Amino acid sequence: MAPAVLKSPARRAALRGLAAAGSAGLLAGLTGCGFALRQAPKFAFESVQVAGFENTSVSRSLQQALVSSGLRVVNSSAGARAPVDPAQAAVPPQVVLIVTLDRHERVVSGQTDTGQVRELTLRARFRFRLTTPAGKILIEDTELLLERDISFSETAALAKAAEENLMFRDMDGDIVQQVLRRLAAVKTL
Length: 189
What we know:
Helices cover 39% and strands 30% of the residues. The protein is an alpha/beta fold.
């Protein structure tokens, strides 16, 4: 008799109504506490020059993210990301992002009794500072360091190399997002 009660249309409708009311209550509570989805960053400047380590994977991803955010990006190397409009080319950038370090590291962190590698630590380091063209420091030297541990097996070396590359790409994306948030925190030049 109990299974027939669970399958009744009235009971299903009541459970759906409770679920909808609970969802609406949860959403109302979240909006009341100030919760909001992350928005695209807003910057206090419209153009940025990237100097030093312009052609590394993190710097290229960062430049693409800045362009996607509506900023004009200029490299210190000739021709890279140069504006198409000659009038814009004459306008100097408002800020200079100086990348002083962009490095991937791979360190052995675990071995077996026989000395075989069993665990690696992957590190992505990115150091930068933000200044005005006149030299005023807007963001002091900041180093971002991300670490991930990965197991290793000689029998699956190719698969582990692909996994390592994927983890480095993921860490590079995290670094780009952190740099964007720090750049958006600058409110005045």
